[in-house]
Amino acid sequence: MDNLSLNTIDYFQSSQSNFWHWADNGSVIEFPTHKTVCYREDLTFILESLALPQPVPLGTFILLFCACKDNFETIYPVRVVFHQLFLCVRREAKESDDLELLIKDALSFLRVVNALPYKYRMGLKRIPLYQAIFEAIDAADPGGLAAILREFRTGEFDEIIFHKTKELSLARFKADLKPLADALKRFPDKDTLELQLRTGLTTLPKAPEIPVPAPVPADLFEALDADAQTTGISRLARQIIGALSIPMHLSGSSDQSVGGVSDISNRGHYDKLLLSELAQDDLLLTARLANNEALFLQREELPVNNSQEWHILLDSTLKMWGIPRVFGLSAGLAFSEGRKSKEPMNAWALGGKQSVAIDLHSKEGIINSLEILDPALNCGMQLSKLLAEQKGVKGKYIMITADHYREDLDFLSHFLPVKDQLDYLVVVSRDGHIELFETQGGRHKLLNQATIDLDEVLFAKRTINHRRYTTTGLPAIMQSHDFTLYFPSSKIKLKHENTFKTKNDEVLVITQDSRVLLWENKEWGAIEVAGYIDRGEYYWGFDGKHALSLLVNNTANQLVTIYNFNLSNYVWSTVQAIKLRAGAVKFLLNTYHIKTSDGVVSINPLTGMKKPFPATQLSSGGEGSQQMPDDFFNGIKFTPHFSIISQTKKFINNGYSVINSAKRIYAHATGRIFLDQHELWISPKGDHIKIKENRTDPIDLISPVKQEIMEVEHLPNIKFTKFIWANGSEAVLDSRGLLHLKSIDQSIPQATIVLVLEKTSACWSADGMVCGSPYFTGKNPPNGIPVADFYELYIKSFINRLK
């Protein structure tokens, strides 16, 4: 007998009193408790499918077959059997210590394998599992296992292998345990082994240390709007820019119309001749040019001081504290940002004894500037000192202070001598009045003034509300972030107002129970974008890309609420309800224009901020006209033709109806669930699941003992009916067309079933498994399992626990 034959017999032959043995004439392998571990064909198929660098002892595989079964330590008392073998094998004291450690590590790794999700240790999934465990073994005899299996397949040595045993040795026992102990070093826990199976890595690679590029400067007003501390200052600065016309000398030369006509002269270049001069005959035009009688256009010259630096001097003393402080800082921001030159303005906060440079070009600088407060009564001394230091330096100065300066003699004693060095004076008051004076050249000329409602601008609440709700006690599907099922089309009555179709042929519908459902494709069900919105008149707005808005006009309560949806990630948010009596609404230029009894209000849907009505863009009059066209809100409403409604209905519902309610839910002793006269039915092949009619009255029913209505605060229009069995298990009927099963046995994951008729259904479990129709699960879901397996593991287990 050659070496290969001897190796084959030695590999497959069992030992006396070992933890496994052949039974039924070599057709199965059993544990000492006579529990079947695996069948011969199953064993050989899996071993042949592996590509291992060297043979792994058969006893090692037997232990892994045991560990892949649920509750394996109950079915196979491995720890007890190992203790008995430990006492049987011959050993020395040192070898005993080694064996005890091997047994401990081997048991630990078997528990790691058993802790894996069932999908990684079921059926053919065991092949990649065993491959991952043993592929790192040092190669000693490549291809050895394949040769032994070929010899075993011949059946030549069956009589010796199946009917004879050899003496259990310490070396063989340790050889069976060592690969498992070695595997524990690589996979110390379930997460490491699961990561290996999913990615081929035992640890995720660390992110490379890439230097972060410098941030791209964002618009300052947008940055201020995003922070609750500074959004009021941003709004007030915008109001000041709109209310006060910034003098032209504050703007950069690149922002002016270079070469504008300012006069007519009798001197100039020929290309500036008046067109009327070119109408003269040649001799007369020559004579007029020779005698300096021809007329030329005189172009406007740019201010010579455009290159000069501008400086903002902000009073920060005691009388500017409070509202004037915020008002003055907003005015400084308005002049700084309203000036379109790329060169930033310098700014100082003037106190009684010192001047502090401040930054008006960043959000952090604005916040820091608000913290600079000086207890002095006025800043006159610092004003004269700073201007004295800057004397001779080419620059322009804007002084911002409160209206108290006129009565402060001490301040005036310092202010009047240096007044000529200032160019502009901005005066703010607590009641919202602001004045802009020109002081250059000894003048004190009022250029502009305005009164701003500070309460409205600074303290109006413009927050975006992202709804968060408590989900404790609700079905698992409503608490999961990994809900992969699509919703059925339920409680929908198509109208023009409640339906919207994007340019990408996506359809959104507002249902009768105030949900917003989105269909991306005819081949799939719906995504629930919003579980609840207010009721009223609906007006859609779309930016053509991903941002979708929905304005709800609740005429009864005189409230306008705007919802925003991001179609790229299905995130939605709500702008706080605005107290407004809306007569008509139109969406144009990414803005809602609302007609009220007092005029027209324009609202930004993203922030809820009111904006001036853009009359110059929408007017039918000439340039600069403020007249609103009479027919602006009188657009013809589009009424969909019957065929268009029919096409949309087919797009969102391809021929099925939904069970929204039931009077009775009960289980049958054979493992079936009934809803009134309908039965949850599995096909004979176990490849699909349906809800079909069954009007027979089955016997051996397991009926709930209690029924109650669940109130869900954030879904007031959805009806949840809870049916409770005697052992505490629950079934919750969801009026959206879902049935949720929750067993009293915590080891059975919660399950959800889609209740549709005339169409194959689908199911979801709390551990992420799905099965059934691709219409509700999507095409090739990553966690899809056969319908028969899902029914056995989740639904039938739920029913069996009721018995």
Give an overview in words.
29% of the residues lie in helices and 23% in strands. It is of the alpha+beta class and 803 residues long. The chain has four domains: 3-199, no CATH class; 237-247 and 307-459, Rossmann fold, CATH 3.40.50; 489-615 and 638-646, Methylamine Dehydrogenase, Chain H (7 Propeller), CATH 2.130.10; 657-802, no CATH class. Strands 8-7-6-9-10-11-12 form a seven-stranded mixed beta sheet, with helices on both faces. A seven-stranded antiparallel beta sheet has the order 32-33-34-35-36-38-39. A five-stranded antiparallel beta sheet has the order 13-21-20-19-18, with no helix packed on it. A hairpin with a 4-residue loop joins β38 (762-765) and β39. α5 runs antiparallel to α6 and α13 packs across α15. The longest helix has 22 residues, at 93-114. The chain is elongated. The two termini are 59 Å apart. Residues 251-257, 461-468, 615-627 and 635-643 have low confidence and may be disordered.
